[in-house]
Amino acid sequence: MNVLINIIKPVQSIFTLFLMVIAISQQAQAEDDVLRFPGDPTEHNIVYQFNKADQNYHNAVLFSVSEMLRKYGDNITIVITAIGPGIHILAKNPLRNVSEHTRQKINSLAEYGVKFHACGNTMKTLKWKKDDMLPFVEIVQVGVADLMELQKKGYSYISL
C-alpha cells in the first residue's frame, strides 16, 4: 500500500503542475484576445502599392495580404492601392492579362474586408469610369497621394 501511495503522490503533483500550466497559458491568451466589435478601430493598418501587371507580382502581393489577415484576423485594416499597370486587377474587363486565380483572390479578399483603391488618374488615361471597375472598388483621385495620405494616418506602407 505504501508503495502505491509513493507512486501516486509524484504523479498527482505532476498532474497538478500540468493543470496549472494550462490554466496560466489560457489566462495569458485570454488577456491578449481583446473582444472587438465591428467598426472598432484596428491596431494594425497597412497599405499595399499594387503597380505591376506581372502574374508573379500579383501572387506575391496577394499571398502577403492573405498572411496578414491570417495573422491579425479582424485586428487589421488592409488597403490595396492600384496604380498604373496594376489597376487592371480591379477592372471588370482588364486590358492586360489577369488570371482567374487573381480575380478570385481579389473578390475573396474584398469579402474579408480588404479595401481596394483605384487611381483615378490611371483610370482617366484608360478612359475608364466607375462602372468599369469591380463593385467594391473605391476610386481615389491620385493613387500616389492615397498612399501618402494613408501613411499620414498611420498606415504602414508595403511595396513588394
Keywords:
160 residues; alpha/beta; Hypothetical Protein Ychn, Chain: A; five-stranded parallel beta sheet; 5 helices; 49% helix; globular
CATH fold-type name of the largest domain:
Hypothetical Protein Ychn, Chain: A
Mean pLDDT: 87
Euclidean distance between termini CA atoms? 69 Å
CATH architecture descriptor of the largest domain? 3-Layer(aba) Sandwich
The fraction of residues in strands falls at: 15-25%
What number of domains?
2
DSSP, total strands? 5
* Helix and strand run: HEHEHEHEHE
Strand order of the largest sheet: 4-3-2-1-5
Walkthrough of the structure:
The protein is of the alpha/beta class. It has 2 domains: 1-33; 44-158, Hypothetical Protein Ychn, Chain: A, CATH 3.40.1260.10. It has 5 helices and 5 strands; from the N terminus they run H-E-H-E-H-E-H-E-H-E. The chain has helices at residues 2-32, 55-72, 100-111, 120-126, 143-152; strands spanning 44-50, 76-82, 115-119, 137-140, 156-158. Strands 4-3-2-1-5 form a 5-stranded parallel beta sheet, with helices on both faces. Helix 2 (55-72) runs parallel beside helix 3. It is globular and about 45 Å long. The mean pLDDT is 87.
